[in-house]
Design goal:
The complex is a heterodimer of chains A (545) and B (544).
Chain A: E1 2-4, H1 9-26, H2 36-58, E2 66-75, E3 80-86, H3 88-107, H4 114-133, H5 137-146, H6 148-158, H7 163-196, H8 203-206, H9 213-230, H10 239-246, H11 249-274, H12 276-302, H13 307-328, H14 331-362, H15 378-392, H16 398-413, H17 415-440, H18 446-449, H19 456-474, H20 477-501, H21 508-514, H22 519-525
Parallel strand pairs in A: 1-2
Antiparallel strand pairs in A: 2-3
Chain B: H1 2-9, H2 27-45, H3 52-80, E1 83-85, E2 90-92, H4 94-121, H5 127-144, H6 148-166, H7 173-204, H8 209-218, H9 225-242, H10 250-257, H11 260-285, H12 290-313, H13 318-339, H14 342-369, H15 385-388, H16 390-404, H17 410-424, H18 428-453, H19 466-475, H20 480-491, H21 496-502, H22 509-527, H23 530-541
Antiparallel strand pairs in B: 1-2
Helix pairs in contact in B: 2-3, 2-5, 3-4, 3-5, 4-5, 4-11, 4-14, 4-22, 4-23, 5-6, 5-11, 6-7, 6-11, 7-9, 7-10, 8-11, 9-11, 10-11, 10-13, 11-13, 11-14, 12-13, 12-18, 13-14, 13-17, 13-18, 14-16, 14-17, 14-22, 14-23, 16-18, 16-22, 17-18, 17-22
The chains are: A mainly alpha (545), B mainly alpha (544).
Chain lengths: 545, 544
């Protein structure tokens, strides 16, 4: 189920930023010009982006298994492998990470000590990349935990007024979640060992472990605890508004756009693959939490006076959508969820960069102390509008495609959850438009009127993001071509396992009957190359015996 | 005890047979003790006080010789297998050799660090090194001991030298106070330990570990009150030496008062020796009655994990913080003991080995940072260190992250090993408690790391303690103008006044070497863990 290559692209992908971080740490500040470390950071992240582009180029569309796999024994006595691989689910998260880091270093620069700042960012990139491409559970855990350290330092070192509190809260919450994850990972490996006699942490091997009902549920909960805190999914979100709001702009961007995706990615990659039965059993619970997150996030966002907190709560709602699609447990929902991870990353990154620039100009995020920025800063307002529209899910922009697929997938499987979630879309329009109105419309005060518009540099920084937002909105086919086979394979795995254990005919039916109905929607998702090895081409789950 | 035993078996001849001594099996500790005696005698032969440098030189050479001897032993054990020597008193196996190696390296690093400390504090003479080597030989004996009496012998040799070492800086009153506390409690715990030995002897008829194991596997003791009481007393004795909660009361005071290199030595060597004996006694001798002692170890582990982590959070003195952090680490190592499996023993050994580097390296930095007279031990003294001395700060940050169990350091794999051993035996609760305590502990390590990386001029930093935070929150920016001024503070104002106030600390070359070795070990074997894991694994396989 894996194709191997001679050249370890994925290892390079992880090592380049890591080596960059070491270089930044080693080269002393006084030995070089003041701009050197930032330039080095940009260079390293651009090289990483190039490697990621090569990976994307090498990636074969229409194949659902792991590609570009490299597998080496790392700690023999503990059974840990350096096992990396990429599939349609992780590919675009890797690309998203690769795109956002250089833009962040350029667009959200440190107020002080750029050297350490860039160093932590590079370490964070290495850790994020590593998490997305790890196929070994312990290796994943290592990278997953490694993200905490730079994120903690970024918030604590460069954050705003209540950064200390926010950094601690962030750290303690996420680490506490991880405690359960590690114990869960170990339990899975030992159960696998007791069944096969082999101690391994590699996902492809562990996928076929059999868990008894209660084991599966408990382990699923242990894994999900960590991922739900990281994402964050309601009710594990309480650290996130503080952390997102108090972090420096770069920290906010990367935590929301990339690190939050580690949580949802972890659910898709590990929960669904390892515990299909428990995922199926507990799906209603997770769907309910997702819907609560969507509605609650949207409603609380309406009440925010602070732009950053508003975006933080809007993210809670968006992550709710991703979780909703995931636990629809069908092809549309999952594809939509994966796509939405990328889309949300792009959109929220744009919004946080823009909000960061507003703060640079006006030193406030308070909606009430900003007014009429549209007339002094039309370009800023225009770009903000595009990103906001994408966030609301206006057709033609990327947010629409993902949300649409998610809602279809959910509707097919769990109708009423989809109905309530759709309400969240409307509320999202309310808070974003309201916020926009307050900040950009109206007569600017004397101070507001002096607000500088975006410089050419700044326009160049957001340009790639806006281009991607529009491009993915009108032409998501290349993404879906690559995402869908992997998602289908996952859905088949889930169905097979659940069907062998649950009396037949319990689950697949609604999906099967519904499959023909959403063919129009599949005009977007449609392209499925015929005769794929290892991936199913027909309507996602319907054909499963 | 062995001689008595021999008398009983060979009562036909009236002469006392001295057992055949296999010197190879005790070579490292003979070298270590011999080195100590040599240095002591040599210093009394000269009219002039021997210089610190001579002591360092001899101690380093002796440690390296002991290390080489231990490596040779390792070769011997791997090719010829484990054996019991000197009338059953010494176990010559992989486990033993592993401890010899750990202690020899710890002694070498301590000799290097002690050199700079003694010169700075103006303490003359080679006695520091004499005592350290004597103590190290005691720890080595505990690792090799195959008899409760020999363990006690090792324990006393190790401890008595440590009592004196704790008091070594006679210019500081705290040092004497620490030593007295350590002595009183330590002597008390030794007494308890001996009583435990007596009760176990009474219950099983032997003080020899394999014979105890043999007796327990053949017999079911109907009323095992005496045995259990003996076990409990032994645990109390060990608990004092490893500083497990609730027997930890002495350790913060002693760590705070002792000279910093001694505190590092104590945390590394005393723990290595005591854990070696603890593992050998409980896992191998009392393995058959593990159901009786596992709950006690379980409770000790949970208490140590939580109390160590939580109380360390509240410390403002770095050495006290390290003391509580060390209690937390003890909890982790106890996790491996509690499982009583080969995996657990191997994980505990790995933990002891890697922790030795982490803690000695950390105390080396603390030694340097404390300046003349051991005054700069407050967390606030570390503020802005990264700006003044980036290399020292970087090294300390790596060591702290290693202790916190950050990925790609040896600390992570150590924690991973013991937690996986616990999960393997279905100790899920213990595993979760351990991970939660790791989260709490990570927090205070990171706080110290952030402190080093935050400029002195920066107000309201994350790393600061409560009181300062309140003030800075008020002083910090609230609205637009405040933020601008804050920007200016952040970018323009260099922390000049603090630098002139504290100045740079000097890092002696040998100390720098020790720190460098610790950091390199932590990183290199964190990234390429194979050899050391394999080493610990082999050591456990060759466990008699």
């Amino acid at each position: 189920m894996a194709t191997s290559t001679a050249f370890p692209y994925l290892t390079v992908l992880v090592l380049v930023p890591a080596i960059g971080a070491v270089l930044v740490a080693v080269i002393p500040r006084h030995a070089v010009a003041a701009w050197f470390h930032e330039a080095l950071g940009v260079a390293v992240t651009v090289v990483t982006l190039c490697v990621a582009a090569v990976v994307a180029f090498k990636f074969k569309a229409g194949y659902g298994g792991f590609q570009l796999v490299s597998d080496h024994m790392w700690a023999k006595d503990l059974g840990i492998h350096w096992s990396l691989g990429i599939d349609g689910i992780s590919l675009f998260l890797v690309l998203l990470t690769a795109v956002l880091f250089p833009l962040t270093i350029l667009g959200a620069r440190a107020r002080r000590d750029p050297r350490s700042f860039v160093g932590w960012l590079l370490l964070l990139e290495a850790a994020c990349m590593g998490s997305f491409v790890s196929l070994d559970l312990v290796l994943f855990f290592l990278f997953f935990e490694l993200t905490l350290v730079p994120a903690y330092f970024l918030i604590g070192g460069w954050g705003y007024a209540r950064r200390g509190y926010a950094a601690i809260k962030f750290f303690v919450y996420t680490f506490a979640g991880s405690a359960f994850l590690l114990v869960g990972i170990l339990a899975v490996a030992f159960i696998h060992q007791s069944q096969t006699g082999v101690l391994t942490f590699e996902l492809p091997a562990l996928m076929h472990t059999h868990f008894s009902g209660s084991e599966g549920v408990l382990l699923f909960l242990a894994f999900t605890a960590a991922f739900a805190v990281k994402a964050p999914i309601f009710p594990f979100h309480t650290w996130s508004p503080d952390a997102y709001a108090e972090a420096p702009t770069a920290g906010s961007i990367l935590m929301v756009a990339v690190m939050a995706k580690l949580g949802t990615y972890g659910i898709i990659r590990f929960d669904l693959n390892l515990f299909p039965q428990a995922s199926r059993t507990l799906a209603p619970l997770l769907l309910t939490l997702a819907v609560i997150g969507i509605v609650y996030g949207a409603l609380v966002a309406c009440a925010q006076r602070d732009l950053k907190r508003l975006l933080a709560y809007s993210s809670l709602a968006q992550i709710g959508f991703i979780a909703l699609g995931t636990f629809a447990l069908n092809s549309q929902g999952l594809s939509g969820g994966v796509l939405q991870m990328v889309n949300h990353g792009l959109v929220i990154a744009t919004l946080f960069i823009l909000v960061g620039w507003i703060y640079e100009r006006r030193a406030t995020w308070q909606v009430t102390s900003l007014k009429g920025l549209q007339s002094p800063a039309p370009v800023l307002a225009g770009i903000f509008t595009v990103a906001m529209m994408a966030s609301i899910g206006v057709p033609g922009l990327n947010g629409f495609v993902g949300e649409f697929l998610i809602l279809i997938g959910t509707f097919v499987a769990h109708r009423w959850w989809a109905v309530v979630a759709t309400g969240g879309v409307i509320v999202a329009a309310v808070y974003l438009l309201w916020g926009y109105q307050q900040v950009f419309h109206g007569e600017p005060t004397a101070e507001d009127a002096k607000t500088r518009d975006l410089s050419w540099n700044e326009r160049l920084i957001v340009a790639p993001l806006i281009i991607l937002i529009v491009l993915l909105g009108v032409f998501p086919k290349p993404l879906l071509d690559r995402i869908t086979p992997s998602v289908n394979q996952l859905v088949v795995h889930v169905d097979q396992v659940t069907n062998t254990k649950v009396p037949a005919g319990l689950e697949p039916r609604p999906v099967a009957t519904a499959a023909p109905r959403h063919d129009p929607s599949l005009a977007i998702a449609a392209p499925r190359p015929p005769a794929d090895p290892g991936s199913r081409t027909a309507g996602p789950t319907g054909g499963t015996p | 005890m062995p001689t008595l035993h021999l008398l009983a078996t060979s009562s036909a001849t009236p002469t006392i047979h001295t057992p055949h001594v296999d010197y190879l099996s005790i070579l490292p500790m003979v070298i270590m003790l011999g080195g100590a005696l040599f240095l002591m005698v040599a210093s009394s032969l000269f009219r002039k006080i021997l210089s610190v440098g001579t002591g360092t030189l001899v101690a380093s050479a002796v440690s390296i010789a002991a290390l080489v001897a231990a490596l040779f032993q390792w070769h011997q054990v791997s090719t010829h297998g484990a054996q019991v020597t000197i009338a059953g008193a010494i176990a010559f196996d992989g486990f033993d050799v592993f401890i010899q190696i750990v202690v020899a390296i710890a002694m070498l690093l301590t000799a290097l660090i002690g050199d700079g400390y003694l010169r700075r504090e103006g303490v003359e003479g080679p006695e520091f090194h004499v005592l350290a080597m004597a103590s190290a030989s005691g720890a080595m004996m505990m690792g090799a001991a195959n008899d409760l009496i020999v363990i006690f012998l090792g324990l006393e040799i190790m401890s008595i030298a440590l009592y004196v070492l704790a008091a070594f800086n006679h210019k500081r009153a705290e040092s004497g106070e620490a030593a007295l506390k350590y002595f009183v409690l330590g002597a008390f715990s030794s007494a308890v330990f001996v009583y435990g030995i007596a009760l176990v002897y009474g219950a099983t008829g032997s003080s020899n570990l394999p014979q105890i194991a043999d007796y327990l596997s053949r017999n079911v003791i109907a009323s095992n009150g005496v045995l259990l009481a003996g076990l409990a007393l032994l645990l109390v004795g060990f608990g004092f030496k490893i500083a497990a909660v609730p027997f930890h009361m002495w350790s913060p005071d002693v760590y705070e008062g002792s000279p910093s290199p001694v505190a590092g030595f104590m945390a590394a060597v005393a723990k290595a020796g005591a854990f070696a004996a603890l593992l050998r006694v409980f896992v191998s001798s009392f393995g058959t009655v593990r159901a009786d002692w596992q709950p006690i170890i379980w409770a000790l582990a949970v208490l140590s994990l939580l109390v160590g982590a939580v109380v360390a959070l509240m410390q403002r003195d770095v050495k006290r913080m390290m003391a509580y952090s060390s209690i937390n680490h003890v909890g982790f190592i106890l996790l491996g003991v509690e499982t009583a499996t080969a995996r657990g023993v191997s994980a505990s050994l790995y933990y002891v080995f890697t922790y030795m580097f982490l803690v000695i390296g950390s105390f080396a930095v603390i030694t340097v940072m404390a300046r003349d007279g051991d005054t700069g031990n407050q967390i606030s003294d570390y503020r802005g260190l990264a700006r003044r001395q980036p290399l020292v700060a970087l090294a300390f940050a790596v060591l702290l992250l290693g202790q916190a169990g950050a990925p790609f350091t040896t600390g992570f794999l150590a924690k991973f090993g013991v937690v996986s051993a616990a999960v393997d035996t279905h100790g899920y609760v213990l595993a979760v408690v351990a991970m939660v305590s790791a989260a709490i502990a990570a927090f205070f390590y990171l706080r110290l790391a952030v402190t080093m990386y935050s400029p002195v001029g920066l107000v309201g930093n994350a790393a600061d303690d409560g009181g300062d935070d309140e003030a800075s929150a008020v002083a910090g920016p609230v609205g637009g103008d405040g933020a601008v001024s804050n920007l200016q503070v952040l970018t323009d104002a260099p922390p000049t006044e603090a630098v002139t106030e504290r100045g740079l600390v000097t890092v002696p070359g040998l100390t720098a070497l020790a720190i460098g070795v610790s950091v390199a070990f932590t990183l290199v074997f964190g990234i390429f863990p194979g050899p050391i894991l394999d080493f610990a694994h082999q050591a456990t396989l060759l466990f008699t």
